[in-house]
């Protein structure tokens, strides 16, 4: 996929390519990269846009997210590499905890949100421009479009807190950038849980068209996820009922179990 300027002309923009997501402050051309697994390619894209990469935001310790950190440190001396304080992220220079803030360039603020369960120290990064405008969140393998990450290092209680409380409390228009393009499969699964959800049906048709045209289905928004992502809809009594559960956490556990066993 060729790099694309996805949105936010003005204070900042997000460059998305198959290699990494890049957040760029328009005023200073300073940039941050999220989970840069192939630093050579990432830096080539950054250079071609005149971007000076100052920092790395690592969502979690898995190699397909943190595996490029040592290399990018060699290529960009002095670069800061952020990662969750309890996640043991390769090459991490600056450990972050829930609520820690980092700034980038003139206008960008980055807030660390601890979103454990996929890994125990997983961090999602909430990014805003001047005056809290243009919110975006980089959710790694915690929140996928219409899905969520496997519970490798945590419980359904933790995933409920991460997805439905921490991420679910962000402003509705917040753009959601996740770590993998699983959208079509996730929406097909979502329809096994809620066959009559019109928004899910419509989004599946849209996502299939996007993929056929070689386009990404990312970003989504928190609002769209609340409408279509079964894992984020477990507060709804009708959804709990559909999966034979009596509480949000019990429903989340049941939906994850069904997804783990679903063959597609
Ligand atoms: C698919 O759909 O492509 N093969 C399947 C699933 C995130 S990557 C692949 C899969 O298991 N993906 C992981 C996940 O959480 N999926 C959600 C879901 O299936 O609903 N990873 O690469 C995964 O985290 C990894 C790396 C895992 C190192 C463990 C270690 Br250790
Ligand atoms: Zn992972």
Please explain how this structure is put together:
The chain has 264 residues and is of the alpha/beta class. It has nine helices and 15 strands. The strands form three sheets. Strands 1-2-3-4-5-6-7 form a seven-stranded mixed beta sheet, covered by helices on one side. Strands 8-9-10-11-14-15 form a six-stranded mixed beta sheet. Strands 12-13 form a two-stranded antiparallel sheet. A hairpin with an 8-residue loop joins β9 and β10. α4 crosses α9. Bound molecules: S-(N-hydroxy-N-bromophenylcarbamoyl)glutathione (GBP) and zinc ion (ZN).
Strand content: 15-25%
Provide the CATH architecture. Answer: 4-Layer Sandwich
The domain tally reads 1
- Unreliable runs: 1-10
H-E string: EEEEHEHHEEEEEEEEHEHHEHHH
Number of strands: 15
CATH topology: Metallo-beta-lactamase, Chain A
Q: Strand order within the widest sheet?
A: 1-2-3-4-5-6-7
The CATH class is identified as Alpha Beta
CATH homology group: Ribonuclease Z/Hydroxyacylglutathione hydrolase-like
Question: How can the largest sheet be summarized?
Answer: 7 strands, mixed
Fraction of residues in H or I helices: 25-40%
Q: Average pLDDT across residues?
A: 92
Name the bound molecules: S-(N-hydroxy-N-bromophenylcarbamoyl)glutathione, zinc ion
Indicate the overall shape: globular
Number of alpha- plus pi-helical segments = 9
What is the end-to-end distance?
25 Å
Alpha-carbon Rg, integer? 18 Å
Q: Report the structural category.
A: alpha/beta
């Amino acid at each position: 996929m060729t790099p694309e300027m996805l949105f936010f002309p003005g204070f900042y923009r997000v460059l998305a390519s198959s290699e990494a997501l890049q957040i760029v402050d328009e005023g200073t051309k300073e940039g941050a990269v999220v989970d840069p697994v192939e630093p050579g390619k990432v830096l080539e894209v950054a250079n071609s846009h005149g971007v000076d990469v100052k920092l790395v935001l690592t969502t979690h310790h898995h190699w397909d997210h943190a595996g490029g950190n040592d290399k990018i440190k060699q290529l960009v001396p002095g670069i800061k590499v952020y990662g969750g304080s309890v996640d043991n992220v390769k090459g991490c220079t600056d450990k972050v905890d829930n609520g820690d803030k980092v700034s980038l360039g003139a206008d960008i603020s980055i807030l660390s949100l601890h979103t454990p369960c996929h890994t125990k120290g997983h961090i999602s990064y909430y990014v805003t421009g001047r005056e809290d405008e243009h919110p975006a969140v980089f959710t790694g393998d915690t929140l996928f479009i219409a899905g969520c990450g496997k519970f490798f290092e945590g419980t359904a209680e933790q995933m409920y807190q991460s997805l439905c409380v921490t991420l679910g409390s962000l402003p509705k228009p917040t753009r959601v950038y996740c770590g993998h393009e699983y959208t079509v499969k996730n929406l097909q699964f979502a329809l096994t849980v809620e066959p009559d959800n019109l928004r899910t049906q419509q989004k599946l048709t849209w996502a299939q068209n996007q993929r056929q045209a070689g386009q990404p289905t990312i970003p989504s928004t928190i609002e769209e996820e609340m409408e279509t992502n079964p894992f984020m809809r477990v507060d709804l009594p009708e959804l709990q009922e559909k999966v034979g559960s009596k509480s949000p956490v019990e429903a989340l556990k049941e939906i994850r179990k069904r997804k783990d066993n679903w063959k597609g």
